[in-house]
Structures are given as C-alpha cells and as structure tokens.
Amino acid sequence: MRKDGVKIVYVLLDGVGDLPHPALNDLTPLEAAYTPNLDALARNGAMGRVITVGKGIAPQSDIAVFNMLGYSFRQGGYVGRGVIESIGCNIDFRDGDLALRGNFATVNDNNNKITDRRAGRVISKEEAAAVCKSLADGIKFSDKDASIALVPTVAHRVVIRIRHSKMKLSDKITNTDPAYDKVEGMGVAKATSDDDIYVLEAKPQDDSKEAKMAAMLVNEFTEQTIKILRDHPVNVARKAAGRNPMNCILARDSGNRFPEVQPINKKYGISIGCIVEMPVEVGISKVLGMKMYEAGSLDDYELKARVAAKSLKNNSGGGDAVYVHLKGPDEFGHDGDAKGKKRNLEEIDRRFFGVLAKELAGVKNPVIVVSGDHSTPCIKKAHSDDPVPLLVSGNGIKQDASARFTEGYGRKGSLGLLMGADVISTALKLASDR
Ligand SMILES: O=C(O)[C@H](O)COP(=O)(O)O
C-alpha cells in the first residue's frame, strides 16, 4: 500500500452513537441535529458502521479508543484503565503498584447507597485538591507497608495509586463502582440503572496473597474515605449550597503494570499526532508514542480545528495524520440529555468541522475520517454495544449515497460493518488507492 502524501484528520466523537429518543421525536441526536458541515463531508465520501471492541461489549473509552487506533488486545494483555489514567496524569506509578480510576460520588450517610455516581459533576479543582489532601493525610492502612496517593483530574475523576513497599500488588480484584465490570482486564458498562446502586466490596479474583491484599487495601480505602469525607468542610459547604457532597470514591479498572505495545507510527509507517485532553486519552497517546499538540480546553473547538489542520501542513513540519478526540457528546449521553447532545453536535459541526473545512485549504487532498469510540444512548444513560457510524471523506473516495453523518446512513453505507481495530488501515487504503 502506497502511503506517500497521505494526509488524514481522524476525529473520534466520544459516545456519539445513539438510539431514537422521544424528546427528539424518536430521532437520534445525530439525526435531529443541524449539521451542514458534516453533511457535506458525508456527501463527499463513504460510510459504514463500527463495532469498536467486540460484539456484545459496551466498552469504556480507554479500550474503545485503543481499538479505534488499531490495538485490540483481544489476545489479552490489556493493563486496565487505572494504569492508562495514571500515565495520563503523571502520577508516580511503578510495576507492582495498584492503579485505579476513581469517581467522587455521593452516598447516603447510613447505608452506602449511591445517590450520584459523579457527585453532581461540577467539582472545582480546589474542592478536589482539598479532599484528596485530607484523604492522603488521613488514610491509615492496617498494613503499615501500604500507602496511598491520589490525583484529581477532571471534574469527578480521580486517579488512585496504592503501593505496598514489600509486595507487588495484584490487579485481580473486582470494582467497588457498580456501574462497570472488568472483563479480560477491559472495563465494560453494566446494564444497571442509576436508581438502586450501592458501593460494592472489592473482592480478590484469585487465591493469591497479592490479590487478597489488594482487595483488602481497596476496601480499607473505601471505608476510611467515607468516614473522613462525611463532615469534611468541602462537603459542609457543598451541602449548604444545595450541592451533592463528594463523600465517597468509587474505584474501578485496577491495573498493576505498564503496557507493552508497538508505537503507532511504527505500526502504520506514517507519523500520527494527536489532540487530546482527558487524562485517559493523554495516557493512550503517551503509551502509543503520539506527538501531542496543545489545543486549549475541552470545548475550544475552533482552536482544535486550526491546530489539527496546521499539524498536517508540510511548511510547519507536518505529520501524515492527526487524531482528534472530542469529549462533548458522551457526557450528555450519560446524563440522558438528548436535546443537550443534539446541541453539542451542532456546535461541533459549526465550530470544529466548519472551521476545519476552511483551515484545510492549504493541505493537499486531505481525507477526513469521523467516528466514535462507542455509543452512549441517552435513553440508557450509559455506554452500549450499538455500532457507531463511520465516515471516510475526501476527493476521490468512491462515494456512496450518504447524505448525512447519522447512524442510519452508516447502516446503509458501502463500507459495511467493520471492527474498530481495522478502521485506520481501511482509511489508509481508501486514501492511498485514490
Ligand atoms: O467520562 C468518563 O470519564 C467516562 O467516559 C465515563 O465514566 P463515568 O461513567 O464514571 O462518568
């Protein structure tokens, strides 16, 4: 396959896929949204659908993005989101430490019933830092050789690292977060509702003393966290202001070692940069050795479009491809806000794809690939295994009858049903064969 001169913008819209929603007259957010720029791309390309990780798997974003970049880990060997987020947030993590993804959550004072898995989502950096400091100072494990470090990242998200100075901890333990399961090391959304959920006990998944120790330490962490945070000044203030207290941390996706993977540029024989912000996306990019471009905060869509186009221009040291992750749609899906998701897609269309179209003027024959890492249907308020639409657009790509970037056109498109791990090689082939 000749790849000389190929220029690709690869956009993953987090949680973009959806199902018909009554608030949108039984359309999906993509179908209901006014997206003239995406529509124009659809008319100049071909569509299909993608099962990002595997049939029947409602994946978390980490393993889904790895797959969409060509790394399936189906033969095992995935290290877990906790490790990827640790790498993303620069915590001092070593092989044998236990790394977990945490959520600040709200629980009832008396029975550990979870009333909000994200403690209201709005958590300031100061609140998160104050709470994490109290926990780092206050948590005393019964085993004196164990210690804890916490790094708050974005909103309700926090990274937990537990270290034992005399033992490598095992990652073979279950989650305390009831919303996700671990399947072959991958985080998978469970079909639970948010209405009747409790903090779970971490259980060892084998008989080793390392797994028993890891589970015991996570359970001590949970119990002490709830005690320390019950009357914490941050929570007294939050409650007084009518906000949900951040009085618990739910842990999931344990991992205990660095991943070993082939760098992405070597895998595809081209140079691929990226524009990412979330800690998990930063972790993935570091693991794959991608060059990261600064492009403001999560919703600086115009800037992201400008930086993406510039990264491909030969006169600025241009790469061959740039992967852009846009977090926007996913949170609306989790919150069940179909109208919000529609509005967000309209904004992305106007402020990202509209600007990108103009900024790419100086790039010769670019190909734009658009897809998602998974579906987050608003009616489910969680990730699902529904395939996501895929669009490969550019002059010379054999067009099908796609008129809009929607789930429906994806279903009818000429690219058919692909696996996530095959998307980049398929796009490269279509781009090179023109
Ligand atoms: O936003 C995230 O971090 C994940 O995609 C969803 O995680 P959550 O269900 O814990 O918010």
Automatic annotation (TrEMBL):
Its EC number is 5.4.2.-. It catalyses: (2R)-2-phosphoglycerate = (2R)-3-phosphoglycerate. GO terms for molecular function: metal ion binding; phosphoglycerate mutase activity. It comes from the Archaea. Residues 7-416 form the Metalloenzyme domain. It is an enzyme of class 5 (isomerase). InterPro entries: Alkaline_phosphatase_core_sf (IPR017850), Metalloenzyme (IPR006124), Pglycerate_mutase_ApgM (IPR004456), Pglycerate_mutase_ApgM_sf (IPR042253). Keywords: Glycolysis, Isomerase. Pathway: Carbohydrate degradation. SUPFAM superfamilies: Alkaline phosphatase-like (SSF53649). GO terms for biological process: glycolytic process. Catalyzes the interconversion of 2-phosphoglycerate and 3-phosphoglycerate. Belongs to the BPG-independent phosphoglycerate mutase family. A-PGAM subfamily. This is 2,3-bisphosphoglycerate-independent phosphoglycerate mutase.
